[in-house]
Amino acid sequence: MPINWVTLLLISSATTALYSFLKILKKSSGKYKIVTGLSSLTAIASLFYSDFNTGYLILIPAGIVGIGYGYIPIYKKNLRSIPFVKVFIIALVWVWVTTVFPIYINFEAFNIGHLMLISSQLLFLVGITVLFDIRDLKHDSSMLKTIPQTIGIRSTQRLSLTLITLSSILILVSICNSDSSRFIFPIVLTSLFSLAVASVSGEKRSYHYYTIIADGVLLFQGIIVLAFI
């Protein structure tokens, strides 16, 4: 699909606004308030100038769940505090916004290729996100029942490697016989980079490693695919 840069700006600025807002709830920082305000204004302007249609309304559930991840009015708990679901909430919202949404507004119906892409991205996101549970192992309450707390660090690393591998196989199979076969190389490159990051992740890795390198895997995926359009 051709890239709609205004919609891309809408998604990225809204995500930044939400992330900063959740940070404000933890600590009332002036810089996060500024980022939230500027990002919100950018998102609103982007929405105004985008080719808005009713398809954009499917972003509303993702926004609600995203806010509920860190804050639920009235209740003292949030979605993040529910045992076992932390990783899956992040993966579902991310894939809903970056994969389901663009497919929904550009095609009349979902086909098998779309479903394989969505499934591949879900596997990929869960595989990357569990690494952050390793990072947070010392800080997360035992009541969260995160995957590393349940099966251990080594088993979590193996799970991450397995999910990333399955994701890569699924997407490669789906595009081998399609017009998107030119993306085979960037997908393989992304997979190898992701597997390398997952294989050396551990409890002793610094916070910056996860923030820059592991988080960077998601950005790297987009950049390398974009280079082959």
Structure write-up:
The protein has 229 residues and is mainly alpha-helical. The protein has a domain at 84-226. It is 71% helix and 0% strand. It contains 9 helices and no strands. The chain has helices at 5-26, 30-49, 59-70, 86-106, 112-135, 147-151, 153-175, 184-199, 207-226.
What characteristics describe this protein?
9 helices, mainly alpha, 229 residues, single chain, 0% strand
Strands, helices and their partners?
Layout: H1 5-26, H2 30-49, H3 59-70, H4 86-106, H5 112-135, H6 147-151, H7 153-175, H8 184-199, H9 207-226
Helix pairs in contact: 1-2, 3-4, 4-5, 5-7, 5-9, 7-8, 8-9
Mean pLDDT: 85
What are the secondary-structure elements, in order, as H or E?
HHHHHHHHH
Number of helices: 9
Low-confidence stretches: none
Number of strands: 0
Report the end-to-end length measured between terminal Cα atoms: 9 Å
**Rg for CA atoms:** 18 Å
Multimerization status = single chain
Report the biggest beta sheet as strand number plus sense, adding barrel if it closes.
none
Fraction in beta strands: under 5%
Class of secondary structure makeup: mainly alpha
* Percentage of residues assigned to helices: over 70%
Shape: globular
Task: Kindly summarize this structure in a few lines.
This protein has 229 residues and is mostly helical.
